């Protein structure tokens, strides 16, 4: 929704009559509701992932040029969902009119460097 809203604001003349979810404010409001983790947990999980990668042995990484066998179900973690949402927020941030939503965006983006 954030990406579609970002495309919609580029039209000149502006697209009128868009559903709220396709406006900058509506898409950001929707995206913020989709964030699956609280800010503190996002930072904690990010630190854990960073430590796992820094301390990983050779078995942690897929072999170069070899076959990869995945065990179990592969799914996006909540942290990856948060990262995808945060990566799209800057595309519409400057077009948001609601100060409360803008403040929430800025507070999430301030933490993005910790991820």
3D architecture notes:
- The protein has 115 residues and is mainly α.
- 55% of the residues lie in helices and 0% in strands.
- The chain has 5 helices and no strands.
- It has helices at residues 2-8, 24-34, 39-54, 78-93, 99-111.
- Helix 1 (2-8) runs parallel beside helix 4 (78-93).
- The longest helix is centred in the middle third of the chain and has 16 residues, at 39-54.
**What is the overall pLDDT average?**
87
Termini separation comes to 23 Å
- Gyration radius (Cα, Å) is 18 Å
Globally, the shape reads elongated
Which structural category fits the helices and strands?
Answer: mainly alpha
> What share of the residues does DSSP label as strand, in percent?
under 5%
Largest sheet descriptor: none
Number of strands: 0
Low-pLDDT residue intervals, each spanning 5 or more residues: none
Number of helices: 5
Estimated helix fraction: 40-55%
Helix-strand string: HHHHH
Task: Outline the secondary-structure elements.
Layout: H1 2-8, H2 24-34, H3 39-54, H4 78-93, H5 99-111
Helix pairs in contact: 1-4, 2-4, 4-5
Which short descriptors sum up this protein?
single chain, 115 residues, mainly alpha
Describe the structure in brief.
This protein has about 120 residues and is mainly α.
